[in-house]
Amino acid sequence: MASSTKVKSNRYVGVYYYPLEDKDKTYLITYKDERGKKVWLTMGKHSAGVRENTCSITRTEIVHKIKHGEVPNIIRNKRIKKECITFDMIAQNYLSYKEKKNYERFVQRHKIKVQ
How far apart are alpha carbons 115 and 42 in whole angstroms? Predict the structure, then answer.
């Protein structure tokens, strides 16, 4: 009866679990980070004392801290935060480069026409 798919908790929002072959469960929580990207965080096994209730409380604390601009301790301990280069950052750099290049071409052409 082991399943490799996530099962959503009926009671709590954002809490999932994997049923294991030894009739144990591995609990996961999900939330969206400050960039709006969905994050899956493994909390632990049922046999190790992790329950749906504690997962829900932890998820609520994480979401609350993210909304107020803080970095939760759980994320600091479990995940290494690094600066992520987004497509928007690349596009802004490219557009500023092209504007500068076009301006230089314009000035260069203008000088040639004047002389």
Answer: 70
With contact defined as beta carbons under 8 Å apart, do 44 and 52 qualify?
Answer: no
How far is it, in rounded angstroms, from Cα 40 to Cα 111? 58
What phi and psi, each to the nearest 5 degrees, are found at residue 87?
-65, -35
Contacts of 13 (CB under 8 A, 6+ apart): 56, 59
Burial group, residue 54, by CB count within 10 angstroms (0-12, 13-18, 19+): middle
Average pLDDT, the chain: 81
Low-confidence ranges of the chain (pLDDT < 50): 1, 114-115
